[in-house]
Write a structure and sequence with these properties.
single chain, 327 residues, alpha/beta, Rossmann fold, 2 domains, 8-stranded mixed β-sheet, 11 helices, 12 strands, 26% strand, globular
Length: 327
């Protein structure tokens, strides 16, 4: 099978004050080997919760209540949902076979340890090698990601580094064990445009050199255009459109996807014309009990959209959409 990861009917709920908040609601998704899948959506759509579900890091009071996450390696497949997140097997997968680049490097790195010690610890936990070998591997991987003078600067502490350098350290830490799946959770969000371009260039070099399968989470469609092979558009914990990157930009079907694309500023736009926006806000998870989650904001809403729940249907080999316009 060509898929490294298959997610079927995934439900993730958060239990707060006798209320159940559904963050992920019956999500189905596959990630092909050595391909980059872009996950796009506004804040609050469940992108980061999806990534944490794969890593087995859903924080309390959250819980995976239903579904399967099949991960395939070494000619076997494992349901990550069934593994205890503290178990030896999960520790051997997390950080080793599946790695993650988190959104905020400053809060993801320990401020009282040098960046060298933190990468060395990752290697020693997962690869069972001594300190000298781990240190050399750390220097090598820091060179690979463009970290200057790693032989000297592995003794730097996180607070001594710029945002761009911290992100390079996070990428190095995620790659050092040569994972099969790399999850990048908005790795360029907190960076300025120049550093963002450098990190994206580095990520593309990583794709060519290390050949990992990448799940790239972002709300920036411009980043997706440069990085992804396939794109999944998320809205309120569900996939509303899944297609190749070319289909998304040339032939988007779902009104939400079209709205996102129309919101991108262009160089030839006249200054006196306002930028297109999607009216309203993302509803709270579970707020819309019946019908399509997008109907309060949809410019093409129909009467049945308020009562009938759309399902993800296949329009072609390269495109699936969850919308009653195509059912």
């Amino acid at each position: 099978m060509d898929n490294l990861l298959d997610i079927t009917s995934l439900h993730v709920d958060f239990y707060l004050d006798k209320k159940t908040i559904p963050a992920i609601n019956g999500l189905n998704l596959s990630i092909k080997k050595e391909k980059t899948l872009g996950i796009v959506g506004e804040s609050g759509c469940g992108k980061s919760v999806l990534a944490l579900s794969i890593m087995g890091l859903i924080p309390p009071p959250g819980k995976i209540t239903k579904g399967k996450i099949w991960f395939r390696y070494n000619q076997s497949e494992i349901d990550l949902v069934k593994i205890n997140f503290k178990s030896k097997l999960m520790r051997s997968i997390r950080g080793n076979k599946i790695s993650m680049i988190f959104q905020e490097p400053m809060t993801s790195l320990n401020p009282v340890f040098t960046i060298g010690d933190q990468i060395i610890e990752t290697i020693r936990i997962h690869q069972n090698v001594n300190y000298t070998v781990s240190k050399q591997r750390t220097i090598n991987i820091l060179k690979e990601v463009g970290y200057p003078e790693p032989e000297k600067r592995i003794y730097d502490y996180p607070h001594q580094l710029s945002g761009g350098m911290l992100q390079r350290v996070m990428i190095a830490m995620a790659l050092v064990c040569k994972p099969l799946l790399l999850i990048a959770d908005e790795p360029t969000t907190a960076l300025d445009v120049t550093i963002q371009a450098q990190v994206l260039r580095l990520m593309n070099e990583i794709k060519k050199g290390f050949k990992p399968t990448i799940m790239f989470i972002t709300h920036d469609l411009g980043v997706i255009a440069k990085m992804a092979d396939e794109v999944a558009i998320m809205y309120v914990g569900e996939i509303v459109e899944l297609a190749s990157v070319n289909e998304i930009f040339s032939n988007a079907k779902h009104p939400y996807t079209i709205g996102l694309l129309q919101s991108i500023p262009t160089l030839n736009r006249q200054r006196n014309i306002l930028l297109n926006t999607i009216k309203g806000n993302v509803p709270n998870p579970g707020e819309i009990k019946y019908g399509c989650n997008f109907y309060p904001r949809c410019p093409q809403v129909m009467k049945k959209c308020k009562n009938e729940k759309p399902k993800l249907i296949k329009l072609s080999n390269k495109q699936e959409v969850s919308c009653l316009l195509y059912s």
